[in-house]
Amino acid sequence: MAASKLPALSLSLQFGRFKGVERHRAALPRHSVTRWIRHALDIDGEITVRIVDADEGQRLNREFRGKDYATNVLTFDYAQGPVVMADLVLCAPVVAREAKENRKTLVDHYAHLLVHGTLHAQGWDHETSEADADEMEAYEIEILAGLGIRSPYGK
C-alpha cells in the first residue's frame, strides 16, 4: 500500500477445535494477522478470520461454491464500501500441506493467503481472465514484499 497510513481494521480471529490447532495459533499471532490484512486493505475493514479443519473447510466449499473438497482459503465478502466487510476461512490442514509441498514456512503461507483473501474481499478476482490473474498476482507480490515476505509464486 503506497499511503503512509494504513486502513483501520476490526478483526475477529477464531480457531476451530481440531488436532494440531496450537501449531496454527502459534503461526497466527493477532498482531501479525492484523498487519498482513491492513497492508492488503485499500479502506477500513471489519474482517473475521476463522481457521478450520478439513471437514468444515470441505463443507463450506461444497455448500457455497459447489466444490466438494477443502480448499486453502474461502472469502465471503459482504460489503466493499464504505467499509470492507468479510469472513476469511482458512483450512489449516490444506494450508500446512501446501506450505510443506512448496517449501514455505507456515507463517509465510498464511500471510500470503490472508493477503489473497483480503484482495478477494475487495473485488479482486483471478478467475475472470489471465490478465486479472496476472494483475492480482503482481499486487500480492508487491504487498508481501512490503511485509518482508518473498514472492509465493517463485518470481
TrEMBL record:
InterPro entries: MetalPrtase_cat_dom_sf_prd, YbeY, YbeY_CS
Entry keywords, A to Z: Cytoplasm, Endonuclease, Hydrolase, Metal-binding, Nuclease, Ribosome biogenesis, rRNA processing, Zinc
Class of enzymatic activity (EC top level): hydrolase
Subcellular location per the Swiss-Prot or TrEMBL entry: Cytoplasm
Pfam families given in the database record: YbeY
Positions bound to Zn(2+): H116, H120, H126
Entry's Gene Ontology molecular function annotations: metalloendopeptidase activity; RNA endonuclease activity; zinc ion binding
Subcellular location, principal: cytoplasm
Keyword Hydrolase included in the entry's annotation: yes
GO cellular component: cytoplasm
GO biological process terms held by the UniProt record: rRNA processing
UniProt EC number: 3.1.-.-
Manner of cofactor binding, per the entry note: Binds 1 zinc ion.
Cofactor dependency: Zn(2+)
NCBIfam families reported for this sequence: rRNA maturation RNase YbeY
UniProt family annotation: Belongs to the endoribonuclease YbeY family.
Biological role: Single strand-specific metallo-endoribonuclease involved in late-stage 70S ribosome quality control and in maturation of the 3' terminus of the 16S rRNA.
Name assigned to this protein: Endoribonuclease YbeY
Organismal lineage: Bacteria, Pseudomonadati, Pseudomonadota, Betaproteobacteria, Burkholderiales
